[in-house]
């Protein structure tokens, strides 16, 4: 089973984490320590109650998460796929924060996935020494 990490603590990251957990994936949710209050309720409940008011392909219910917290090394090191679900202007901060944790073996998905943000994210990882990841990203874009 794939191990999935979700970075962020807003509506998008909660929906992403809950949806994937309800589909049976092992999901960790990690928010910046600066915004830890965003995840306090989910942390106390060990998951997220996803309420779906219209059917957009999501299944509602209580999504039990594997781990929830602010320690990026503990929560993201063993993940196969990491979803970075934060506003585009914050992606740079999360790239810098995770640069010592992310591995070339991991798939990192940016939401939103604007092209410029992806290039900036990859450049930060390259500048921080995660060179194989940079090469892999550019190859995926055909660069």
Instruction: Please state roughly what percent of the residues sit in beta strands, choosing from under 5%, 5-15%, 15-25%, 25-35%, 35-45% or over 45%.
Output: 15-25%
* Model regions low in confidence, pLDDT < 50 over at least 5 residues: 134-143
Number of domains: 1
Q: Give the terminus-to-terminus CA distance.
A: 31 Å
* CATH superfamily annotation: NAD(P)-binding Rossmann-like Domain
The strand order across the widest sheet is 5-2-1-6-7
Fraction of helical residues:
25-40%
Main sheet makeup: 5 strands, parallel
**Number of strand elements:** 7
Reported CATH architecture: 3-Layer(aba) Sandwich
> What string gives the helices and strands in order?
EHEHEEEHEHEHH
- Annotation field: number of helices: 6
- CATH fold descriptor: Rossmann fold
Model description:
It is a single chain. The protein has helices at 11-22, 40-45, 72-76, 91-98, 115-127, 131-140, and strands at residues 3-7, 26-30, 47-50, 61-64, 67-69, 81-85, 107-111. The protein has 143 residues and is α/β, with parallel strands linked by helices. The protein has one domain: NAD(P)-binding Rossmann-like Domain (Rossmann fold, 3-Layer(aba) Sandwich). Helix 4 runs parallel beside helix 5 (115-127) and helix 5 (115-127) packs antiparallel against helix 6 (131-140). The radius of gyration is 15 Å and the shape is globular. Mean pLDDT is 87; it is low at 134-143.
